[in-house]
Design goal:
0% helix, mainly beta, 172 residues
Length: 172
């Protein structure tokens, strides 16, 4: 049948995203100036942070839409901390660190990285949850509210008697 049709336009960039030692790339967010990219030395589909002697490493970079890198930041956990999640919420990169304490308490630290590559926070505890961590597979998940004013951090716990518990923290 004849008719008027519209198609999506695709623009190819002459640039490419390459970073030595970081073979796995994932776009985690974008704004009107470009895209936020998470780079790792392990596949993003794997939740394992350690394989043999290798430990997962992260970098976050910002590329304009011509794939020219504007900035790049290595993400590293502090003393006795581990990286729970690196994502994008409320128009910024969000890094969640955790620190295991006694009596099944886990402290969480939030670090925001703005569009200029400036890190905000990450040094003070934002919240604490008491739960039995079964393995490193139980990482925190993050969802932003529709008005982008709050985020929810969700943790999944599987108890010894096969009960599932969900712990959540809501923060602005």
């Amino acid at each position: 049948l004849p008719g008027v049709m519209y198609a999506q336009s695709i623009k190819y960039s002459a640039g490419e995203i390459t970073e030595r030692g970081f073979d796995y790339v994932k776009v985690i967010g974008q704004d009107e100036e470009g895209a936020y990219v998470l780079l790792s030395n392990f596949p993003h589909s794997s939740s394992r942070d350690k394989v043999g002697f290798k430990i997962r490493k992260y970098k976050v970079a910002f590329y304009n839409f011509d794939l020219q890198r504007k900035w790049s930041i290595a993400i590293a956990a502090g003393s006795e901390q581990s990286i729970e999640n690196v994502g994008f919420a409320c128009g910024k990169v969000l890094v969640i660190y955790s620190k295991q304490k006694e009596n099944n308490r886990v402290e969480y630290f939030l670090q925001w990285i703005n569009s200029r590559g400036v890190s905000l926070g990450g040094n003070t505890k934002n919240f604490e949850i008491t739960y039995q961590r079964g393995s490193d597979y139980g990482k925190a998940e993050v969802t932003a509210s529709t008005d982008k004013e709050r985020i929810i951090v969700l943790l999944h716990e599987m108890t010894s008697n096969n009960r599932q518990l969900f712990h959540c923290a809501v923060t602005d």
